Amino acid sequence: MKFPQSHTLQQIATIIDCKFVGDANFPVLGMNEIHVVAPGDIVFVDHPKYYDKALNSAATIVLINKEVECPEGKALLISDDPFRDFNKLTNHFKPFIPATSNVAESATIGANTIIQPTAFIGNNVVIGKNCVIHANVSIYDDAIIGDNVTIHSGTVLGANAFYYKKRPEGFDRLLSGGRVVIEDNVDIGASCTIDRGVTADTTVKEGAKIDNQVQIGHDTVIGKKCLIASQVGIAGCTIIEDEVTIWGQVGITSGVTIGEKAVLSAKAGVSKSLEGGKHYFGIPADDFRTKYKEIASIRKIPEILEKLKEKS
């Protein structure tokens, strides 16, 4: 998430009431999660296990809960609770604005686009031309919809990321200030949910087709011309490359990459990145040849046990 204008390190430290290390006028351009940071961004870290990753990332401002040596060319914001203060910054730069109508006055709707009754279009939403948004669709603030997009009833674009920190008193939610971006010629079925990015975008690229009851987590990227069947669940920060086919009830864990033109058969459980151009099935998912060998080996177990019994 980029700020509307550049701020200084001192200005940011004042907003969250914390100490800083570095030039008071050090430029701060935005804030992002570690997988999408760029120079000028703030990244937060609150566990020693991830200190080095954050300090060596592309981010030039690190919001951290320990005073450590500051890398050259960077700055630190020293906080007793970086998670809390990252939320403060999200609230400051991207506050929630209640709706006052079913279609916000700040929304932009393209030519020949049809918005059916009872659909909700939030603040600053942009919808291209020749789209059809069916009844009871909810498109939350800041979403970007391309041309020739169809979205069926009950679908929600832009709900919060499923991202929580466990505290003694319960779970504390990381606020979501990102967007959902749907490119041209995408079809989205009924009762789908596509969560907004935490600070960046959840993206469905040109020509992708999504069936009913599909969940796509925060900051995930769905590639061009992908086919995703019903009841698929894709966790956050996942990369689905172009022309991937995912059949019904597949579950995909966070942070993995599915290579171009891969095919995932129904009910596959994906727990690691998968190469493109192959067919996969099973739990955990693996390519057909490997999985069939595994199944053949398992089927031999009773015979092996019987032979061992005879020998004994």
Provide structural commentary:
The chain has 5 helices and 34 strands. With 312 residues, the chain is of the alpha/beta class. The chain has 2 domains: 2-93, MurE/MurF, N-terminal domain (Udp-n-acetylmuramoylalanyl-d-glutamate--2,6- Diaminopimelate Ligase, Chain: A, domain 1, 3-Layer(aba) Sandwich), CATH 3.40.1390.10; 108-291, 3 Solenoid (UDP N-Acetylglucosamine Acyltransferase, domain 1). The strands form 5 sheets. The chain has a 10-stranded mixed beta sheet with strand order 8-11-14-19-22-25-28-31-33-34. Strands 7-10-13-18-21-24-27-30 form an 8-stranded parallel beta sheet, with no helix packed on it. Strands 9-12-15-20-23-26-29-32 form an 8-stranded parallel beta sheet, with no helix packed on it. The radius of gyration is 23 Å and the shape is flat.
